[in-house]
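Our preliminary data section would be incomplete without showing what the modeling component actually yields. Below, a chain of 295 amino acids is followed by its predicted structure, encoded as tokens that our downstream tools consume directly.
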Amino acid sequence: MEYLLYRFFCFLGMHLPDWLAYFIGNMIAELRYYFCPKLKKVITNNIRQVFIYRQETQNVEFDEKMLKRTVKRIYKNFGIYMVEFFQIPKWTKEMVEKKVEVVNTHYLDHVLKNSKGAIVLTAHLGNWELAGVVTSLLGYNLSAVALPFKNEKIALMFVRRRKSKGVNVILTGANPKEYLRALRKNGVIAILGDRLFTEKGISVKFMGRQTLLPRGPATLAVKWNAGYLAGFLIRKKKGRYMLVFDSPMQAKGSDEQEKIYSLVQQGARYLEKYILQYPDQWLNFSQMWTNRSNT
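Predicted structure:
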């Protein structure tokens, strides 16, 4: 049943006019907003901490009405994200040129000059699926690290959609040789780094709180001496996007563990930078903090 539902939405994404697809996506998001109170509480707590940290560091005040509006926009942006995902087969190089402002690819090009590949730290921000597609269509050899679906048919469908646009998929828990194979081809590996999946995390300051963030992206960069930088695809307005990369990070420390920790810590600053700018596009639906302690 779940597989048939995904196939149905894939069909709608490809054949409905954009206005109707986005209308349906928005209606589904509205239903989730009103009928999933536990999820809404998680999102509200996450964004409240983002706003608290922004108030402390940038003096941008907020109130509960502003928080509620932002949470509602997050649901709306998730509906847009889902429509965009199901429309991936429509994307071409010409669409990228027309719809996407590409910023700072020279940072990515710079680290690739060493011929050791690059690890791009990204987040559940804007549209991370489309970020991989756009980067691939720009001519980069891109691999995306993704969670495996329990339903094999759905997993295969998602892999095929990504591969149709040149995006190689590496599933979490895959043989390390898959990562090494991609880096040896001087490829780019994009990995989400704003919440834990299956691994143990490293505790660093994030949004003013001690937070467990994934160690995997930094570990890959340190172990194989690959370039390490952050990159995101941000939605600027309806049908327009910005693919942006930021300056490369340098590992610091006398041993491997210190270097990994330094990259996770630096990565947290880049995640903060963009989430603070676009909080209503942070589609992280996992509980990030369990209490109000700042220790």
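The chain has one domain: 2-281. Residues 2-281 form one domain. Preliminary results of this kind motivate Aim 1 of the renewal.
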